[in-house]
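Milestone 3.1: sequence recovery, worked example.
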């Protein structure tokens, strides 16, 4: 097999993938439509442009994204190298000067003799022979999109991301929350409280946990929700997103009872605290079969992350909630990775096509670059005649597993401790727990790296 790879898109994932391949002696042809063509969000002519923010989140390994960055650093990431070269003060977070960051990566890519940059818009996957890595990002050009539709099907392609927050099951107050589907858990007519409690105690865990609210709790929540700060959307995002899925804060502004007749409808439930129907009811849906994470049903939101934590923690049972992923609403082209990709980000029905970056089903700057890294090392091992599997007790391996695991509610995912292999022992203190997970992960990455001959 010719040791050559075509990469479409010189964003974070594309550049990371190209650099690692080239560093290991593989020829790369990197296609980039800028500066001749730009999406609505792009301004710079440089590669690896940071469009939304200059923050790459926490540097602490007790933070999931911090752990991911450390794993990438250990494996020779250009993204991490550039970030520290462009670092600006930001407390415990890693923030960068965007211009310096992008120029650093652009220079490294252009100077590498194994990388040929082609400044043109790719219109069809059929125009390129051999291995192709699609790293075109969340705003993939519409012409190429049509080619993707032909390859994977319209039903497995998404055009915007409206995701509700995900919280850790360990942080839910089970003295308030109760299991059960609508009507199954409800106290029946003429059923005494003791009879009802005995019956529901025998209800097996369903896919849903329920959080009841009384009138005072509900009205306080709604007041804070409608007055919370929101993220400003690009003009080109507003039409698709708001027509496709209404943010919960927008619904709340339509009237005080709107949510009670919508996603917080209390019909069919009984409040454990009172034995009567709650004034409103929030449902949490199990996010994985292990029950480690829960999605707040119907809470697609455009609130700023800090506001989500403040306002949603007012819901009874979520006072100490740990948010593994905050809700997002933005224009985002992505595929149903869980159905289409293997754990090397390779298309199951065409092993010459890989996906990297947000289009593959990861969410965030660091995660996008990480996927590009994993694709590169997977291709290197393929050329060496072997198959690569990142360890599942690492954040890199956990992201790869998430992206390639079927899920009827598949949505892009950030790095979080809810997707990594759990400890074999119980640790109540959150910091100690995450430290233990991080230490296992970093030891695993070190052994993994030492077993390879990568440069």
């Amino acid at each position: 097999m010719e040791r050559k790879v075509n990469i479409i898109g010189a964003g974070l994932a594309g550049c990371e993938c190209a650099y690692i391949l080239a560093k290991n002696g593989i020829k790369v042809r990197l296609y980039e439509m800028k500066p001749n063509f730009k999406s609505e969000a792009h301004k710079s002519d440089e590669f690896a442009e940071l469009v939304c923010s200059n923050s790459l989140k926490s540097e602490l390994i007790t933070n999931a994204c911090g752990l991911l960055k450390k794993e990438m650093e250990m494996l020779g990431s250009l993204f991490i190298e550039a970030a520290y070269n462009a670092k600006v003060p930001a407390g415990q977070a890693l923030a960068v000067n965007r211009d310096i960051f992008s120029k650093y990566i652009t220079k490294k890519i252009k100077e590498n003799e194994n990388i040929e940059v082609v400044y043109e818009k790719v219109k069809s996957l059929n125009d390129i022979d051999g291995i192709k890595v699609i790293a075109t990002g969340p705003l993939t050009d519409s012409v190429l999109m049509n080619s993707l539709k032909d390859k994977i099907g319209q039903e497995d392609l998404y055009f915007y991301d409206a995701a509700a927050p995900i919280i850790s099951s360990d942080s839910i107050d089970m003295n308030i929350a109760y299991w059960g589907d609508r009507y199954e858990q409800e106290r029946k007519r003429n059923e005494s409280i003791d009879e009802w409690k005995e019956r529901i105690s025998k209800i097996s865990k369903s896919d849903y946990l329920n959080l009841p609210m009384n009138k005072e709790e509900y009205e306080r929540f709604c007041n804070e929700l409608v007055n919370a700060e929101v993220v400003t959307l690009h003009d080109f995002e507003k039409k698709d997103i708001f027509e496709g899925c209404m943010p919960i804060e927008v619904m709340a502004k339509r009237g005080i009872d709107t949510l009670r007749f919508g996603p917080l409808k209390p019909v069919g439930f009984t409040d454990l605290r009172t034995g009567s129907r709650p004034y409103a009811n929030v449902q949490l849906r199990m996010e994985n079969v292990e029950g480690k994470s829960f999605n707040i049903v119907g809470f697609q939101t455009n609130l700023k992350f800090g506001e989500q934590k403040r306002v949603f923690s007012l819901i009874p049972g979520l006072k100490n909630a740990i948010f593994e992923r905050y809700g997002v609403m933005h224009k985002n082209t992505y595929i149903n990775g869980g159905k289409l990709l293997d754990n090397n980000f390779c298309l199951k029905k065409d092993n010459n096509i890989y996906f990297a970056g947000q289009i593959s089903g990861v969410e965030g700057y660091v995660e996008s670059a990480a996927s590009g890294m994993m694709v590169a090392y997977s291709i290197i091992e393929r050329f060496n005649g072997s198959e690569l599997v990142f360890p599942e007790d690492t954040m890199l391996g956990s992201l790869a597993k998430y992206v390639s695991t079927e899920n009827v509610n598949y949505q892009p995912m950030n790095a979080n401790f809810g997707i990594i292999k759990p400890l074999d022992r119980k640790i109540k203190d959150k910091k100690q727990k995450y430290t233990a997970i991080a230490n296992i992960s970093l030891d695993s990455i070190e052994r993994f790296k030492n077993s390879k001959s990568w440069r």
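The domain at 4-158+332-450 is CATH 3.50.50.60 (FAD/NAD(P)-binding domain). The longest helix spans residues 430-450.
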